[in-house]
Design goal:
By secondary structure, the protein is of the alpha/beta class. It folds into 2 domains: about 5-30 and about 280-405, Lyase, Ornithine Decarboxylase, Chain A, domain 1 (Beta Barrel); about 35-280, TIM Barrel, CATH 3.20.20. The protein is about 30% helix and about 25% strand. Strands 4, 13, 14, 15, 16, 17, 18, 19 and 20 form a 9-stranded mixed sheet that branches. Helix 2 (about 35-50) packs parallel to helix 9 (about 255-265), helix 5 packs across helix 6 and helix 8 (about 210-225) packs parallel to helix 9. The mean pLDDT is about 95. Bound molecules: pyridoxal-5'-phosphate (PLP). Pyridoxal-5'-phosphate binds near residues 81, 102, 239, 275 and 276. Pyridoxal-5'-phosphate (PLP) binds near residues 237, 238 and 277.
Length: about 425
């Protein structure tokens, strides 16, 4: 499905002209296709259908409550990494019994909140965290179901900042320490071991690292069983990659499930998957308006009204995003850097990019901006967070208003001592 495609020279998202949205809502603006999101969820559901399974969408990829509700309405559970994300899920109407809480640094307050909301599963990443969980659960009179995140020490062949399953990463426990944690949990009355977890990285294009990691976790699962602990959930984490650049060929949901299923089908365990990027990345674009064309002796620049505060992936990961004009792509091409207004040289969306000639006032669509884009945005340079729009068929809905200037300073105060 081509979510963003030209019709008579105008770029559409489903049946909505993105130029009309840019006109009405203003720029920059994120536009998401509801049907593209659901299509991806369906691909995952179909791929894992032969096994008992649960799809927990990774909220940090795109945490707009309309997106969360859309996915929950179609059967998804959620994977959260903070109290704030859990709050979003609850406000969006997600069933807490379908929420998995992961992350290396859960505070006691976060645990207590999650226990009181009766979430399904805590993914624990260290022995001290397990002790704390036991204590907090005892304090509120509940039992916490947990899985240990195992660091399988496999290379995911992705960007170093988004590889998480190597021994040197901060995530999870090595297999021996994980086994020890399960062993010690037998003396902890307020926690109950129900699962085992891995998450080896993000934007992973092949199934091989998953297969290698699953094999390691299977060995460990046997050793855990020898302790008399029968686990019911095998959580594979997220990480499936998407196409950012033409020519990329990530493994499909079906291919990945096809590789893993034979390894786990006789386990009598429910498979959990926590995909984020795969579900939302290609469903979204950031629409931005060209402000100036600027030429220096060395370079051409297209200066746009979106900045690294809106979409930080190019600055943070050197990530590549396809960029298309939203109207009548000219037959004439220019080569230019596409840059934002933020006062950082890193505030660039593309370097030496060949693109159809554009002029001030034209809009550009920065594609594959549905994941880790709005959710990573900030107000740096005191730029209010931009609007988000959800499209379904020929209808579009504002799911986040552009922030007002007043909201930039709403939590700030000037104490008397600084007033002359
Ligand atoms: C971020 C994260 C995910 C989702 O990763 P994607 O690459 O977006 O699929 C899943 N599980 C955990 C524990 C994560 O931290």
């Amino acid at each position: 499905m081509d979510t963003f495609a030209y019709r008579d020279g105008r770029l559409f998202c489903e049946d909505v002209d993105v130029n009309a949205v840019a006109e009405e809502v203003g720029t920059p603006v994120f536009i998401y296709s509801a049907n593209a999101i659901l299509d991806r969820l369906n691909q995952i559901e179909k791929a894992w259908a032969p096994l008992p399974h649960m799809v927990c969408y990774s909220v940090k990829a795109n945490s707009n409550i309309a997106v969360l509700r859309l996915l929950a309405e179609h059967g998804a559970g959620m994977e959260v990494v903070s109290q704030g994300e859990l709050f979003r899920c609850l406000r969006a109407g997600v069933d807490p019994r379908r929420i998995v809480f992961t992350g290396v640094g859960k505070t006691a307050a976060e645990m207590e909140y999650a226990l009181q909301e009766n979430i399904f599963l805590f993914v624990v990443e260290s022995l001290p965290e397990l002790f704390r969980l036991n204590e907090v659960a005892g304090g509120v009179g509940r039992t916490a179901q947990f899985a240990i995140r195992v660091n399988p020490d496999v290379a995911a062949f992705t960007h170093p900042h988004i590889t998480t399953g190597k021994a040197a990463n901060k995530f999870g426990l090595d297999p021996a320490s994980a086994l020890e944690a399960y062993r010690q949990s037998r003396d902890m009355p307020h926690v109950s071991p129900v699962g085992i977890h891995m998450h080896i990285g993000s934007q992973i294009l092949s199934s091989e690292p998953y297969v290698a990691a699953v094999r390691k976790l299977l060995l460990l699962t046997e050793q855990i069983a020898d302790l008399g602990i029968e686990l019911k959930y095998f959580d594979l984490g997220g990480g499936m990659g998407v196409i950012y650049e033409e020519g990329q060929r990530p493994c499909t949901a079906e291919e990945l499930a096809g590789e893993i299923t034979p390894l786990v089908k006789d386990l009598d365990m429910t498979i959990i998957v926590e995909f984020g990027r795969f579900v939302v990345a290609n469903a979204g674009a950031l629409i931005t308006r060209v402000q100036y064309l600027k030429e220096t002796p060395l370079k051409k620049f297209v200066v746009v009204d979106a900045g690294m505060n809106d979409l930080i992936r190019p600055a943070l990961y050197n990530a590549y995003h396809r960029i298309l004009p939203t109207m009548n792509p000219a037959s004439e091409f220019i080569e230019a850097d596409i840059v934002g207004p933020v006062c950082e040289s890193g505030d660039s969306f593309a370097e030496n990019r060949e693109l159809p000639a554009v002029k001030p006032g034209d809009c550009l669509a920065i594609l594959t901006a549905g994941a880790y884009s709005s959710s990573m945005s900030s107000e740096y340079n005191s730029r209010p967070k931009c609007a988000e729009v959800l499209v379904s068929g020929d209808r579009s809905f504002i799911i986040r208003q552009k922030a007002e200037l007043d909201q930039l300073i709403e939590n700030e105060t000037i104490p008397d001592i600084v007033i002359g």
